[in-house]
Fold this protein.
Amino acid sequence: MFLHDWVTDEMIRGKYFFTKKDVLELHLPITEQALQNNLNRLTSRGTIMSPWHNFYVIIPTEYKLRGIVPPSFYIDRLMKFLNRDYYVSLLSAASLNGASHQKPMIFQTTLNGKSIRPVIKKGTFIEFTLRQDLPLMFTKQIKTQSGYMNISNAELTALDIVANEQKIGGLSRAAEILLELTEALTWDESKQNLLNYFSNATIQRLGYLLDFVDAHTHADDLYSLLKQKTNAMRKVPLKQDVDINTTTNNRWKIIENYRIDIDEI
């Protein structure tokens, strides 16, 4: 009963996150097993949820009926708990950068460090993409119900979806997203360093797709930045692991071994 009252008091104070260590430091007159039983009971009642071992989220009143909280509510605190640098990425970032028609079923996050398992809970699926060198200077903070979270800016999002096209539904889906992101993109000199975090092949594929969706001004600007990065472009296939002899795009040196098919064009 005391633990339930403490959780209620925390929520009243606007504190929605705690760890098992926090509870142990309350020095309740019960065994650790009894404490765990209490935490399990509060979870089963929909009072709290645990997206990660020993990390708990107090479920706000507006989410009580569903019994879950959207990952945006707690992703920043969870990453601090795990001591990881991160940014919300791919489809999740695209939807927050202007690709409003994208309705991701999963919450995608890029982080550093060792590989970790996805978070799969009732109604929640958080997928992690591992990258040791995070281009954090090309992320931004946006406000959430509980504070802030880091998301990739439009240009980083565009590069990520091309580099990880298998995680967002393929190259045709990538082209659809780029079409929606065009108003948010700016390939000026301030983005030159961003290209150093990606292979030339990824940049070439992105440029090709920008031309494909008729975002020619963006493609021109990206081409200028790429020419500063490298003096020569090698031929690369549009779709990796597809071996088809076909034509090569002269500008981007892309082997057109895959057909992009989207409704909007």
Remarks:
- The longest strand covers residues 124-130.
- The mean pLDDT is 92.
